[in-house]
Specification:
Blueprint: H1 2-5, H2 10-20, H3 27-40, H4 45-56, H5 62-75, H6 80-92, H7 97-110, E1 116-117, E2 120-121, E3 140-143, E4 149-152
Antiparallel strand pairs: 1-2, 3-4
Helix pairs in contact: 2-3, 3-4, 4-5, 5-6, 6-7
Length: 164
């Protein structure tokens, strides 16, 4: 194993974390390897972003995901994908629409990686009566007659929401 040959290389630990993170059963191991990578190189923004991606999969860890994404952005504010990840988390897990719009807009300004909503360039719905349905690789959101916008997580069906 490469880590045995070069145990002080943070990138190797991060790569192992990426591999482990592919299955939910190994999430604890993935987290430990990302933490080891951060210990070795706390200034590598990609590792912080990877840790955020891992945390974002568990709704109860959304605050930790946000902190990890923000650390990645602090270290490398010109990486559009980091802003996009933060924006997606803010809308899908934390339902902070305005904050998500700001993060996704910042990602768009940086480019060439474009923030996506159901595969379309740029941000969140802003037009009254906007509605989207279907499966997509981005966030689904629906604004219905009630005027409320309801975010849905990745790959789920958007549906009309009701006013409370």
């Amino acid at each position: 194993m490469a880590i045995e040959l070069a145990p002080m290389r943070a990138g190797l630990w991060s790569n192992l974390g990426n591999l482990l993170a592919k299955t939910s059963e190994r999430a604890t191991e993935a987290e430990a390897t990302y933490q080891k990578a951060i210990e070795l190189d706390p200034r590598d923004a990609r590792i912080w972003n990877n840790l955020g991606n891992l945390f974002a999969r568990t709704p109860e860890r959304a605050a930790e995901a946000e902190a990890a994404y923000r650390k990645a952005i602090e270290l490398d504010p010109n990486r559009a994908s980091f802003w996009n990840n933060l924006g997606n988390l803010l809308v899908s897990s934390l339902e902070r629409i305005a904050d998500a719009e700001a993060a996704l807009s910042q990602g768009d300004r940086i480019g060439p990686y474009r923030s996506r909503l159901l595969g379309q360039p740029r941000g969140l719905p802003g037009v009254p009566g906007w509605q989207a349905q279907g499966r997509g690789s981005g966030i689904a959101a629906t604004q219905c007659g009630s005027g409320r916008t309801r975010p849905r997580t990745f790959g789920t069906w958007a549906s009309c929401c009701t006013a409370n």
